[in-house]
């Protein structure tokens, strides 16, 4: 997506010029010291969906949670081979300069102008991406991170403190989005909600619930308390699929959905994992034809990660066009959406929180509604939905959380939340793949080599087998 890429780099370079001090003389109009908020918002939103929600972090964790597989010989990222060099771009280009720096610039400029709409939206996006960063690495630099431009070697903030920043940032965002004096209105530069501040508030509240429940197993935190907080936030969160936070790509050349690009022939052999496909087939799940494109013999065949390349002409199932996957002769996936959060996820959060507070009986109807919401989003036929729900209407009597997260695993297809839920709850019960490069599924990303070289910290020696704070 070179058009999007160049526009983002342009904003990045322009916003960095704001750090320079110039003499008080005539300014070059072609090199402004400040960039309008509207010119920052669009590229940062696209960066968030293209490089994060459907970029390297999501592709990698989809392999590790066995939703996707690589049709390649081991070792590779599919079999847990990940190095500090592999994550350089995500940290050193995507998250810190392109997203965090530009969002901080957007928010600062908006606050100076009294533009509460832009400030509020910027804070929601900042909280979302900050959570992605700390969830992947644990402790990260933030409070001093942007002093690095002045030569400071920033300290690493604890993950617990980052989570407090995330919640306070979302609280600030909600206050800004609720302001009656919102300043300059947001419009077509907002690719997610088109300037609908009410929708952004629902998104902020839904994220609050997501991050409250993330700490349900964290040391010193109570699952019941976190459930209460999540349920309170959800009262103002998503109320239907119309509230889903997503960007739908244009689909024209160089502006295709990133999952379309990820699954093009020659993109590395990205196919569906046999683990996911077998679950869907065993359950007679009507979502299978939507989540997947057929392979050999008009059948759905998933690849078992870590196995040798097939010697027969097997064609494995691939990502369905609804989510952007490529299928030969059909480019509809190129114009598909990338989701940041959905109503179905919100209902699964509510079901889990209700389970902690009131038990399985109270959680069951919400769990059913969550499955139904995802099927509605996929436009599954009403009769097929009813048949599936009738067969999967109850929670496991012994381990009801297993049932909730098992269905959420499908509804959050290709989302980073699948990896977060697995680390937090242990569900689904994944096994190490065959011929694994490491004898464990990584619990975190390694710190990037560029960061290790330029800003050495004790945390950087933590092994990828070590759980992040909230998963302990």
TrEMBL record:
Gene3D superfamilies: 1.25.40.390. The keyword Magnesium does not apply. Keywords: Lipoprotein. SUPFAM superfamilies: TPR-like. The keyword Transcription regulation does not apply. It comes from the Bacteria. InterPro entries: SusD-like_2, TPR-like_helical_dom_sf. It holds the Pfam family SusD-like_2. This is SusD/RagB family nutrient-binding outer membrane lipoprotein. It comes from Pedobacter riviphilus.
């Amino acid at each position: 997506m070179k058009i999007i890429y160049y526009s983002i780099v342009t904003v990045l370079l322009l916003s960095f010029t704001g750090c320079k001090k110039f003499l008080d003389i005539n300014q070059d109009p072609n090199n402004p010291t400040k960039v309008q908020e509207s010119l920052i918002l669009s590229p940062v939103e696209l960066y968030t969906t293209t490089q994060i929600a459907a970029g390297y972090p999501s592709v990698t964790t989809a392999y590790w949670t066995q939703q996707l597989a690589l049709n390649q010989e081991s070792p590779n990222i599919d079999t847990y081979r990940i190095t500090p060099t592999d994550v350089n771009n995500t940290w050193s280009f995507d998250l810190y300069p392109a997203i965090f720096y530009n969002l901080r610039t957007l928010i600062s400029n908006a606050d100076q102008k009294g533009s509460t709409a832009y400030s509020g939206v910027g804070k929601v996006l900042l909280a979302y991406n900050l959570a992605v960063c700390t969830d992947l690495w644990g402790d990260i630099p933030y409070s001093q991170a942007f002093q690095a431009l002045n030569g400071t070697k920033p300290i690493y903030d604890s993950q617990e403190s980052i989570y407090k920043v995330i919640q306070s940032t979302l609280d600030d965002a909600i206050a800004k989005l609720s302001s009656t004096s919102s300043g300059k209105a947001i419009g077509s530069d907002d690719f997610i909600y088109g300037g609908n501040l009410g929708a952004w508030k629902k998104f902020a509240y839904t994220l609050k619930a997501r991050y409250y429940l993330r700490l349900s197993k964290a040391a010193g935190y109570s699952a019941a308390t976190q459930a209460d907080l999540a349920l309170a936030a959800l009262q103002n969160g998503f109320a239907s699929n119309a509230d889903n936070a997503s960007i739908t790509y244009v689909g024209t050349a160089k502006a295709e959905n990133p999952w379309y690009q990820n699954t093009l022939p020659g993109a590395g052999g990205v196919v569906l994992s046999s683990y996911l496909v077998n679950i869907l087939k065993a359950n007679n799940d009507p979502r299978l034809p939507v989540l997947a494109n057929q392979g050999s013999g008009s059948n759905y065949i998933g690849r078992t990660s870590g196995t040798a390349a097939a010697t027969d002409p097997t064609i494995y199932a691939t990502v369905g066009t609804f989510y952007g996957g490529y299928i030969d002769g059909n480019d509809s996936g190129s114009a598909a959406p990338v989701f940041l959060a959905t109503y179905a996820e919100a209902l699964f959060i509510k079901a889990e929180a209700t389970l902690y507070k009131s038990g399985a009986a109270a959680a069951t109807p919400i769990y059913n509604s969550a499955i139904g919401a995802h099927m509605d989003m996929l436009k599954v036929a009403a009769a097929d939905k009813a048949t599936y729900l009738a067969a999967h209407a109850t929670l496991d009597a012994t381990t009801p959380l297993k049932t909730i997260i098992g269905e959420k695993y499908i509804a959050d297809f290709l989302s980073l939340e699948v990896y977060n839920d697995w680390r937090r709850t242990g569900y689904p019960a994944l096994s190490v793949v065959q011929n694994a490069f490491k004898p464990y599924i990584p619990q975190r990303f390694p710190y990037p080599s560029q960061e290790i070289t330029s800003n050495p910290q004790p945390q950087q020696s933590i092994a990828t087998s070590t759980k992040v704070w909230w998963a302990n």
